[in-house]
Design brief:
236 residues, three-stranded antiparallel beta sheet, 9% strand
């Protein structure tokens, strides 16, 4: 869960116990101060980005010293405000084919729009995303390991579309398409300790997506899906 005021003795006990059991510990964080304390305590990864202020050299040093990874979940931040302008999504076939008609009606409804915009924190959400993006870029440039996750699956965090938007937001933050694809495949498998996943190599598990255009030229080409294979079998 979210950490307030830094890691308590409970947090430290969880980290130490997990290490003895060869398990990884990931913490939801928001504040730079909590991130520093948890990295110093040996946390394996941050689920979410530091969002209250820019990361600094101290945090970068702690993350590199202790091998702390970042799972930025930028889509989580975007989902708090981008649907205040639903037309660009509701006119996007890639979005609508994966979202139920009922949910599309909700997004377009005046009631939903009013509830979204009346949130007293609504004006803060876009700046929070920009801070998260700035911090992702700085940490990546510093050589911190980046894995991939969108925090999709609840509320307006749409699964499938969320992962594609996550990739686009990471590129918008300044990462290259190659860095993003590597984070979503090889690096995420590495973090999870899954040696037979993550890259296209002999002897590895053959889950792959075949694209009709080069995602290194434009990350949005990841949407141009030609075929999907699971365990070497074509499923789409």
């Amino acid at each position: 869960g979210d950490v307030g005021g830094g890691p308590s003795e409970v947090s430290r006990a969880i980290i130490e116990g997990a290490r003895r059991g060869e398990l990884k510990v990931i913490a939801q964080i928001f504040c730079l101060s909590d991130a520093k304390l948890l990295a110093a305590a040996g946390l394996d990864a941050f689920g979410h980005s530091v969002r209250d202020k820019p990361v600094d050299a101290e945090l970068i040093g702690l993350m590199k010293e202790h091998g702390t990874w970042l799972i930025p979940t930028l889509f989580r931040e975007a989902s708090t405000f981008v649907f205040a302008d639903p037309d660009r999504f509701l006119k996007d076939e890639f979005f609508t084919r994966g979202v139920s008609p009922r949910m599309q009606q909700v997004l377009a409804s005046p009631e939903y729009q009013k509830a979204l915009r009346s949130d007293k924190y609504f004006p803060r959400y876009a700046p929070i995303l920009r801070t998260a993006q700035h911090n992702l870029k700085r940490l990546a440039d510093a050589g911190v390991n980046i894995a991939f996750g969108s925090d999709a699956g609840v509320l307006a965090r749409f699964e499938g579309f969320g992962e594609h938007m996550e990739a686009e937001l990471m590129v918008e933050a300044g990462l290259t398409p190659s860095q993003v694809i590597t984070a979503a495949t090889m690096k995420s498998a590495e973090f999870l300790g899954q040696a037979d996943l993550g890259t296209l190599e002999n002897g590895k598990w053959a889950d792959l997506v075949v694209l009709a255009a080069d995602p290194l030229a434009d990350i949005k080409n990841m949407r141009k899906i030609d075929a999907v294979y699971v365990a070497g079998n074509k499923v789409q």
